[in-house]
Amino acid sequence: MAASDESPMVRPTVQELTAAGVEEPPRQYVLPEQDRHGDLLAADEFPEPTPLIDLSRLTDADEAERLRAALQTWGFFLATNHGIEDSLMDAMMSVSREFFRQPAEEKQKCSNLVDGNGKDYQVEGYGSDKVVSEDQVLNWSDRLHLRVEPEDERNFAKWPSHPESFRDVLQEYASRTKKIRDLVLRSIAELLEIDEDYFVNQISNKASGFARFNYYPPCPRPDLVLGLRPHSDGGLLTILFNDDNVGGLQIQRDGRWYNVPTKPHTLLINLADCLEIMNNGIFRSPFHRVVTNVEKDRLSLAVFYAVDAETMLEPAPGLLDDKRPSRYRKMLAKDFVAGLFEHFRQGKRFIDTLKI
Ligand SMILES: O=C(O)CCC(=O)C(=O)O
Ligand SMILES: [Fe+2]
């Protein structure tokens, strides 16, 4: 195969590789043995109890305590009664599937490469990871990445026009996830006994929100590749909706990987790195990855909420005192994002390098 940074348009998408019936993943996708952490497919079953939180009951002390336990143990939870009707979730999943089912030419209309020469990679659009070096290991997934916040910066030129309802469904969906974001951020602030609006107030009207549709085609060798390499999310909070009946997401705790359970119409909500810093490491941002399988494709939609690029990342003043100094070096959010991508490509957790 041609060197991918010279001719990325020639590099097929993962979906095309699968459709062509490749029996072995091309070498760019194969993880070096030391990065497979032993056997990629030998994760542990998720221990009971599943961190399932009823978002409509967070004002009850019991439910709030369950949220605390979930965040302390895992940094994520599965949310029920989150306010998004099943019908809207089904519509969101269905238009997303329809997008990826379209012929390549149709999807390329939303391409994240401006002119096909590979030098003009954009954050937004359809495609795959930016390739910066020959030895970069690629993820076994394609994606569509769209800005949803700030609302007036939505770039509809990159949004699919087929299926026709895609745009309306995503706009409605994103208006709901934004409400969920604020509800969860307020609940977390309350658990930490700081001003309930502290985290919400960190999000200026310039802060970004991105919807990332991850499409994971089946893979002939799930023992050699990852759908998504290990990472923690960089922003404040992530709201993830994934296929109910296809597992694949794994979360690491104390050095072990666990298969994350799925449940129809729930949302998986996880802390991201900036919130870990702002809460001074009391609740951590989970390290996670996605494994593939030989039979089924899988789709997920992550909505990432971030702070503004100029925000100074530091713990909330109410969480600092002489006995509990800051655990992280201060950094501007934009510098954090720059470092994050470099570490992401190497499968490392950037936030750990900021620990004091
Ligand atoms: O597909 C998934 O379940 C996880 C996706 C994810 O971690 C991400 O997009 O950051
Ligand atoms: Fe993630």
TrEMBL record:
Pfam families reported for this sequence: 2OG-FeII_Oxy, DIOX_N
Presence of keyword Metal-binding: yes
Residue ranges of every copy of the Fe2OG dioxygenase domain listed in the record: 206-307
SUPFAM superfamilies (UniProt xref): Clavaminate synthase-like (SSF51197)
Gene3D superfamilies, A to Z: B-lactam Antibiotic, Isopenicillin N Synthase, Chain
Entry's Gene Ontology molecular function annotations: metal ion binding; oxidoreductase activity
CC cofactor: Fe cation
InterPro entries, per the entry: DIOX_N (IPR026992), IPNS-like_FE2OG_OXY (IPR044861), IPNS-like_sf (IPR027443), Oxoglu/Fe-dep_dioxygenase_dom (IPR005123), Plant_2OG-oxidoreductases (IPR050295)
Region (Disordered): 1-27
Swiss-Prot/TrEMBL keywords: Iron, Metal-binding, Oxidoreductase
PROSITE patterns: FE2OG_OXY
PANTHER family: OXOGLUTARATE/IRON-DEPENDENT DIOXYGENASE
Similarity field: Belongs to the iron/ascorbate-dependent oxidoreductase family.
Protein name: Fe2OG dioxygenase domain-containing protein
Organism the protein comes from: Triticum aestivum (Wheat)
